[in-house]
Design goal:
The structure is a homodimer. By secondary structure, the first copy, chain A, is α/β, with parallel strands linked by helices. Helices cover about 40% and strands about 25% of the residues of chain A. The interface between A and B is large, with 59 and 59 residues.
């Protein structure tokens, strides 16, 4: 057994002596915080507000002993003493009195190395870092199980919304077949604004950047990568499989135009960046892509920076979880919830209480996907007989059209929108292929699935 | 220390020897099931489906050893051996090999006595019994803490929806200020049908009874008591206070007419039986009452037998949880989720891992309530000057009208609907009093609050 576990054993003996409200004494648990940006400052603030409550619940008093920052002199949203601030990570990782590390730096390095060092030193780790868990979760969880410490990351997906713990604990009586939702606030804000104002993607993105809702380099959000990382994390837990980021087929929202938003509304729908994963008899399919959601579907009403996730279990049926997907205090709500879990486990000497059950690497099918209705916006040559030719191509592929809109014509070209009946992904791909080979006839501008109506 | 706790200690020693997947051996844990109706049969069915998964997660194999039924000869939805069935509760309560008892009988007695006996015998208890927990929860939880056993009741509220555990664990970093939602499926089904068809309450109730969605004696549902019991349970946990059923002000849906449903739609709303509780600086207000919900509010789209609960925390902001509130397998999903928690606690020797933190009996204000818009439907005398008199009464009470509808006149009487601007509860009560004293002028037929728009 390594030093970390031995340290935990010593800690247990000390705890047995002092634990319990009845004695009126509470053992302090020192916490090291890595990073003090938006999330870190929220954690400091909320930990202060709830210190007494946490002590009442766990018998342990959490104290933020040290905070790692790049510049100890920089003004911050929360007041910290000079003694608390450090720019040397070893003052946290190397301090045996610090039992719990909260990581809010974000990104892969140095977060990954610091977390692995903390785990090896026998410290429990709480992180809000979705990028790290999506890419290196397996390595980190294996290290934690080896060292018998907790690594919790409720805040990595869905901000304040309890998602990880319900999937890992409350819903484990189910075989979960589907998870589906809106898990990126930036794209949801942009699409909500485009829907409300009719403005184009680039104008709304610029405004979102000015307001701080989108990063200067927005690609992680608008290209769907952030949602794909979160879907990787959720799918791994829901389906008990080691899902990789590369397993997710990703389409971002850059190609969604004001025209699409307009047609979507005409069709009684709104466009959302939908993350969806399914398990069909042990075969997984994972998508992130703009999708038309019917107005009577609850996901259609999830606007701005809110997140929502549908979960379908074989026993539970459909469930939905909804709330703020980001922000300083909402994220801190999830982080501190994890702190309370860690302290409870520490006080009861059950580190690593809930292990992640991974059955296997389930196979991933990149071509599959449920049969779905599809929205296609095309620019077509505006001459007699063209529409008949297009209709013929659909007919030959045995794809029937549910709705056809032809709204605007200029300079010899018309814009045609087709919504198909439900069609298997392969047959849709065949049509897109055929039309792609006839550029004089028609050009596919946008293709998006249309979600089924309300539950 | 009593016999129950001693029994638990012995059990721990045995577990330490045999636990762990690594050794390839799994200790069986015998479970006794009280009742085998709709929920009980779902529990048997789902336990069978998930036995291997549960063993993989907890290192313990759950076995339903014995099932208490009234008539062992009656045909059932699930196949049970003659040896499993018994009509003698002592064959479960008195069997030292049965470690866990699942109660699905419902109602107060004999469920209460059997659960207390099981607890005293050192058995862990899982129940779906909202009536019992609402009325005798404090007694049962105190007994469980004394005997150091788990009593879990996720299935008591919201069927498959994880509500109890998120409130007790994930969200405890928050001071929760509001919980609000639709937590009775029968009334939601009836109101949804009234909205969809325009039919009257009594006709829809009859149909719901024929379809099995409403009981032969529907009063517990339609008079709001079932929702009030669930609100009592949720509020106790959310607000860390010992809330009593009598603390909830309850109005059922019997007085909601097809006319109200019609006017609600004219006003861009739908009528729902809303359960709502708030904590304002340590003072609680709890209501169950029919409420007009604006169409753009997510709760307006929760139809038929679905349940949804909003939770507002000071850090998390608004959260919503949605899903099936009843039914055999959805309820079993929550029960088996609790079984997994109990088995995990057993295998790690941490019975009673999460204690319910009750600060105090917080005071309850029966007169308060946030200022709200109110819908009033009145029958008024159809003669000149009447409306002026009514408007004068509103004006004198400083209650301004937002909307006035006068839709139908017959036999010298007119129907007038008023929606007020936001008004404190006391001022509204004053108007209702004044109008109540002028029966020749106007009679108040219905009065319901109007919920604010979407989050």
């Amino acid at each position: 057994m390594d030093d970390g576990a031995a340290g935990t054993r010593d800690g247990r003996a000390a705890l047995r002596e002092s634990h319990g409200e009845d004695e009126g004494t509470h053992m302090d648990v020192n916490i090291g915080l890595l990073g003090c940006g938006t999330v870190g400052a929220g954690v400091v603030e909320l930990m202060r507000r709830r210190a007494d409550k946490i002590t009442g619940m766990t018998g342990l008093r959490p104290t933020i002993a040290r905070v790692l920052v790049r510049d100890v002199g920089k003004p911050r949203a929360v007041v910290l003493s000079a003694g608390q601030l450090t720019n040397d990570p070893q003052e946290i990782i190397g301090d045996p009195d610090i039992r719990v590390v909260i990581e809010t730096i974000g990104g892969i390095e140095p977060a990954r190395s610091l977390i692995l060092q903390a785990i090896r030193a026998g410290k429990h780790v709480i992180t809000a870092n979705k990028d790290l868990i999506a890419l290196h979760g397996a390595e980190i969880i294996a290290a934690a199980e080896g060292a018998r410490v907790d690594v919790l990351y409720e805040a990595a997906v869905g901000g304040a919304i309890p998602l990880i713990r319900p999937l890992r604990e409350s819903l484990t009586a189910n075989d979960i077949t589907d998870i589906k939702g809106i898990i990126n606030g930036t794209t949801n804000y942009i699409l909500s604004k485009m829907t409300a104002t009719g403005a184009d993607f680039s104008a709304v993105l610029r405004e979102a950047q000015e307001l701080g809702y989108a990063e200067a380099d927005p690609s992680s959000d608008v290209d769907g990568l952030d949602a794909a990382r979160k879907l990787t994390i959720l799918s791994s837990i829901a389906f008990h499989s080691a899902v990789n980021l590369a397993d997710v087929q990703v389409t971002g929202i850059r190609a969604v135009t004001a025209r699409d938003v307009y047609y979507a509304r005409e069709l009684g729908t709104v466009i959302k960046l939908l993350a969806a994963a399914s398990d069909r008899d042990g075969e997984l399919t994972l998508h992130v892509r703009p999708t038309l959601i019917p107005q009577d579907h609850p996901l259609a009403h999830v606007s701005d920076a809110y997140n929502a996730l549908y979960v379908r279990g074989d026993a539970s049926g459909d469930l939905m979880f909804f709330g703020r997907g980001a922000g300083s205090l909402p994220t801190a709500s999830a982080v501190i919830g994890d702190v309370i879990e860690v302290l409870r486990n520490v006080s009861q000497s059950v580190p690593g209480r809930v292990r992640t059950l991974v059955h296997s690497h389930k196979p991933v099918n990149h071509n599959a996907g449920e049969p779905a209705r599809h929205y296609l916006r095309m620019t077509v040559a505006d001459r007699p007989g063209v529409f008949g030719q297009i209709a013929g191509i659909f007919g030959d592929a045995e794809v029937s059209m549910e709705t056809v809109l032809q709204k605007r014509v200029d300079e010899g070209r018309a814009e045609v929108v087709v919504v198909t009946h439900e069609v298997p992904a392969a047959r849709l791909a065949a049509i897109l292929d055929t039309l792609g080979g006839l550029p004089d006839l028609a050009r596919i501008e946008t293709s998006m699935p249309v979600e089924r109506g309300a539950y």
